[in-house]
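Example record

One chain of 245 residues, shown exactly as stored in the release files.
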Amino acid sequence: MLKTPSGGAGYGAAATDGRLMSIGRVLTVLREEFPDITISKIRFLESEGLVEPQRTPSGYRKFSAQDVERLGHVLRMQRDHYLPLKVIREHLDAMERGEAAPLPTVCRQRDGETVLEPVEAPAAARIGRAELLAAAELDERELAEWESYGLIAPLSDGAYDAETVTVAALVAELGRFGIEPRHLRVMKAAADREAGLVDQVVAPLRRHRNPQTRAHAEARAKELAGLTVKLHAALVQTALGVRLP
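Predicted structure tokens for this chain:
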């Protein structure tokens, strides 16, 4: 079994009851440390042999806690050490064989200077309807219901933003506690109002003719979004008188 590297998130805690996780649940868990991770990225890592989830008779992927730990290790080595996947795979395989496996360093010479090799290009952040159904383990009836309440909405071309998988996974998790999609309309309305506030702040920058200013607007929007999410969570915890771990 692969040990969690120093500084890792300890994803095994997300499945302490030993249950296998859907790819949508894995996405939610990993996004706590890797907010840009997508379903496409996870599937790409699988295709490259970095992880081998189990399959149900109907073909759905099922990940163990060890699979999620391994994915976290892969993503951390890409992010922090700029290692290509071939080197990461060899490193992890050596660790799982019990061999001494010091962290490799991969450099290249460019214009007379030593530079770290770049990681692979990020995966696309859009998924199709069938992919969303499979990732979130939904059927058409459930998806139609969630769409009717505005919790999930397709883009103009019928595809979905990759973040939709996270929304679907969370809606499904809340359903385990008896919270139905219709109950979540108030949360969707609050999210829309918060998004509107952020957009109001950055709109002048987005309309600027200078490309650098427009890029700054996107960075500012991301920062404000993070702050509003933290404030929302703190307000809910305060109202309930609880603290999250």
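Notes: Strands lie at 54-55, 61-62, 107-110, 113-116, 126-127, 160-161.
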